[in-house]
Design brief:
The chain has 433 residues and is of the alpha/beta class. The protein is 38% helix and 11% strand. The strands form three sheets. The chain has a seven-stranded mixed β-sheet with strand order 6-3-2-1-7-9-8, sandwiched between helices. Strands 4-5 form a two-stranded antiparallel sheet. Strands 10-11 form a two-stranded antiparallel ribbon. Helix 11 packs parallel to helix 14.
């Protein structure tokens, strides 16, 4: 385990859990069924019992329908064996979930009540399951975006419990830059100067007690303390995955599509349902780890420039999907042509050495000691720039399309409020398809 000057990460988490119980009236854990949230839930319950805390903790599980049976078994076991200590919220409501395995669907809808014959598995039958028949959430809108349901639940939970509320999430900073930002953001409001907390609204905070843990730390803790965990990880290990490749998420999610084909090997009984549930899933299962899906070294088809290849790829897409990409590509081009962005010193040196058509456009508002760099035209590719990928190019646009990266995260985009509203409008417009 990672060691600080006076403690290891396990001891540090005990202090953070203690902080949560001492400073908040209500605690709930966001539990996905994966290794990180499972470890966190185990540690919170252990602390609660060790210190004879009688008040129950909330446990929120957002069920995405298409998952391994072992994941369902683990979630059910954690709920059932700890039912006396928890407020259970196992949510099986129709919701719009991002789809990265199809050029024809930006979203798919777990628990779509209009298409129950396509469900990968039957609706769970525990009495505390939340579905359309017993939904207590007044904020819920039919087939609302999965991220919105998650965010609104936190506000709902805080509003329905007196005092201050904290949601504990099992996210670790070393998993992605976005998760690191959730912890490191210097503009957020903290609880008593604790950087691992984030104020979300009045009397409601998110917290990341595992932010400094490594994947190895998680498994050391599970082994040393005998915590219950999702046994799908044992099968992942037998299938040859490294501990850093093992993920429990929707098989159609952008972070899981490369391992979609594992369903064929690890759970053949539901394989046909998984690949028929979403248009394009079978193709992604076969080619999800190849250059056909934007993975590995991408080669340019003969006779094309990257610019012409982007135009070719766009022409193959449905109108609404094509319009989404075109809007984002135009935004990127306008930004780099009209305003400019900051690049690191090594990248700037390479750009100048390789004679890219750039010019300086004044100091940046974010990095006061650096200039904004304008591009006088978008490069076809930037393969000769080795120090960064954060340079605009037609090749990056092509890879976004090949990856079914509808948000264009590969180009550095994050979802804006306007895009969120547009997403809601699209979900409403196409929810019956």
């Amino acid at each position: 385990m990672k060691i600080y000057t006076d403690k290891n990460v396990f001891e540090a988490v005990q202090e953070r859990i203690k902080f949560a119980f001492e400073n908040f009236d209500n605690i709930y854990v966001s539990f996905s069924g994966g290794k990180d949230s499972g470890l966190l839930l185990n540690m919170v319950l252990e602390y609660k019992r060790k210190h004879n805390i009688t008040k129950k903790i909330g446990v929120f599980h957002q069920d995405f329908e298409a998952q391994y049976q072992l994941t369902t078994d683990y979630v059910a076991k954690m709920f059932e064996e700890n039912i006396d200590d928890i407020e259970p919220y196992w949510v099986c409501l129709p919701m719009g979930s991002r789809c990265a395995v199809s050029n024809y669907q930006m979203y798919w809808y777990p628990w779509d009540d209009e298409k129950p014959e396509l469900w990968v598995r039957e609706m769970p039958k525990q009495p505390y399951i939340i579905n359309l028949q017993n939904n207590p959430f007044e904020f819920y809108k039919y087939k609302m975006a999965q991220e919105d349901l998650y965010a609104e639940f936190g506000k709902w939970y805080a509003n329905h419990h007196e005092g201050k509320t904290i949601c504990l999430l099992g996210i670790r900073a070393d998993e992605s830059i976005n998760r690191y930002r959730a912890y490191a953001n210097t503009r957020k409001t903290l609880m008593k100067n604790s950087q691992w907390t984030t104020k979300m609204s009045k009397n409601f905070y998110n917290a990341y007690p595992l932010y400094d843990w490594s994947t190895k730390d998680v498994w050391v803790a599970n082994g040393k303390f005998g915590y219950e965990y999702n046994k799908i990880y044992d099968l992942y290990y037998k299938a040859g995955l490294s501990i850093n490749q093992m993920r429990v998420s929707s098989p159609y999610h952008e972070n899981a599509k490369e391992s979609l084909n594992l369903y064929r090997v690890l759970e053949p009984a539901i394989w046909a349902k998984v690949v028929s549930r979403v248009n394009g899933a079978n193709f992604a299962a076969m080619y999800g780890n190849t250059k056909l899906m934007g993975v590995g070294k991408i080669t340019l088809p003969k006779g094309h420039t990257w610019r012409s290849y982007v135009k070719f790829l766009l022409a193959t897409l449905p109108d609404s999907i094509r319009a989404n990409y075109v809007a984002k590509f135009k935004t990127s081009i306008k930004f780099w042509w009209k305003k400019g962005g900051v690049v690191n010193d090594d990248a700037l040196e390479e750009l100048e050495k390789c004679n890219y058509r750039i010019r300086h456009n004044g100091r940046s508002g974010y990095s006061k000691d650096k200039d904004r760099i304008l591009f006088l035209g978008t490069p076809d590719d930037t393969d000769d720039i080795k120090s960064t990928i954060d340079i605009p190019s037609w090749k990056r646009m092509a890879i976004c399309i090949l990856k079914n990266d509808h948000l264009c995260k590969y180009m550095g985009f994050a979802q804006t409020k306007k895009q969120t509203q547009r997403e809601k409008e699209l979900i409403e417009k196409y929810k019956s398809l």
